[in-house]
Amino acid sequence: MTSQESSVDVPDVADFFPDVSDDLSKVTWAHAVNSKEDVDTYLGDNSTMMLEADIMPGRLTDADPEGPLIPIMAHPPIVVSDISFEMWITAVIKANQDGKKKGAKLDFKDITVVEDCLKILKGKANDISFPLWLNADILKGPVGDTRDPVDADKFLTLCMEYFPQATLSVGWTTKYTTSDDEDALYTKATVEEMVTTLEEKNVAQPVTFPIRAAFVPRSLDNLDWLVETVPDSTITVWSSESDTVDIQALLALRSLIGHDAVYYDLPEDQKKAFEEARDAQSSSEPSFRFWPSNTSALVTVGVALASALASLYLYE
Q: Where do the Menorin-like domain residues begin and end (predicted)?
């Protein structure tokens, strides 16, 4: 490890945003921040903590159409953007240097751009003072999605070589059918394959597992096992706007594995429903105090204790 690498300190999300305390559901997200306009908007939005953006090989809008492909910010099938990866990460670095606290989740859609991006990150390592996640779907997952995952061996090898300080966000390709599809779950075999993949590469950095919200109800026990088995791991629940989501199952997940172990990155309507249910649940939970919280009650307790002691004294 070089002296530059050893000096890099990439903070954990909860440490970087202390207001979330031990409840990662309070972390806020901006999705598909893949244009200059979106970058400017969300870097200036004080309510947004983490910026998620997609990376593809492509060309800038004003580039030579016959020129070489470079890492750009775009979601498949789009291959043209007005912002490159290098421009994007430079803007996020500058925003943090200017006091705007933003984390970054980089979603790699193609293995061919991973090394180029990681080289850029390594060159800017001393300026990355914010949470950094490296995301890819590296295994085939529920309901037989036909898309090819990003090459797991290459992705993990490159991430560990170039930027081992980052959090790995590694998941599965998925396909949504209906809410009552009995195959809509992360099976024990599915999560075991992920554990084996990470163990074979001797992954030692923090890991979060992106989990599709619609598949949570049938997957609770297996997700609990996954987080218990992989050290320093969390879950990031995500969803598509068209998915049917069981909000109570999402609450059950955080109760099962801990409020400090589950992020929720949901579309606006689902996010609102989840937060309302979460807050209602929190307000209904009993709170216990050894001492009363108000002064008059403390006085009453004090008088009662004094009377009891006096009685004991007289009895003796």
A: 23-270
Q: What is the pLDDT of residue 291?
A: 35
Residue 277 maps to a domain? yes
Q: Radius of gyration of the chain from Cα atoms?
A: 24
Torsion angles phi and psi, residue 251, rounded to 5: -70, -40
| Mean pLDDT of all residues in 150-162 | 98
Establish if 301 belongs to a structural domain: no
Contact 131, 101 (CB under 8 A): no
Q: What is the pLDDT of residues 242-264, one digit of tens each?
A: 999 999 999 999 999 999 999 99
| Through-space distance between the first and last CA atoms of the chain, rounded to whole angstroms | 74
Neighbours of 21 (CB within 10 A): 11
User: What's the domain range around 199?
Assistant: 3-285
Under the banding of pLDDT at 50, 70 and 90, the label for residue 178 is confident
Distance CA 310, CA 186 (A): 65
Closest C-alpha among 33, 82, 83 to residue 54: 33
Q: How far apart are CA 96 and CA 134, in angstroms?
A: 18
Instruction: Give how far the C-alpha of residue 216 lies from the chain's centroid of Cα atoms, to the nearest Å.
Output: 16
Give domain status of residue 299, yes or no. no
Tell me if 155 sits within 8 A of 111, measured CB to CB.
yes
Over the stretch 51-62, which tens digit does the pLDDT of each residue have?
999 999 999 999
Per-residue buried b or exposed e for 253-279, using 16+ beta carbons within 10 Å of the residue's own CB: bbeebbbebbbbbbbeebbeebeeebe
Count of domains observed in the chain: 1
Whether 38 maps to a domain, the answer reads yes
What CATH number is attached to the domain comprising 265?
A: 3.20.20
What is the pTM for the complete model shown?
0.88
